[in-house]
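Records of this kind hold a single protein each, on a pair of labelled lines. Below, a sample record shows both lines together.
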Amino acid sequence: MTTGPAQPAGAAEPGRDPGAVSKFVEGFAAQLVEAGMQRMPARVFAALLASDSGSMTSAELGESLRVSPAAVSGAVRYLSQQHMVSREREPGSRRERYRVHSNQWYEALTNREAVIKRWESALSEGVASLGADTPAGRRMVETLAFFEFVDGEIAAMMERWRLHREDRFGQG
């Protein structure tokens, strides 16, 4: 039984201003969309991030964002593939909860590192096919060098982050 209009994710939690929470969710989602994320996954991710538990069911997400279960399902599928949320089964229930973890950015970047490795492999094949001395081959050599550089930087940055996180927040 509903006692009023749906509240944004986290808005009904004690000490929360529903308007401020809604403004954050929609504003942060807009920033994610501007950076290239699809709109609905961005809204779902922001809603999960704004909830104290970091976990909501599909029904809770749908109600708080005023969207259909199908929209939530598609968004969660995308976010799961990007390693930004995980699915958890509620004990003794068929319902799933979707959770955002404190290390979601680490996981998402680690996933990107695997993508960069695949791009490096494809570019190496392209260089071999086109020849490193052709104009297209030289562009690919430079592109490959860029991704190799980025790959090394991400690996080093992730290690620095792990140490920084451990120092600042403890094991976790």
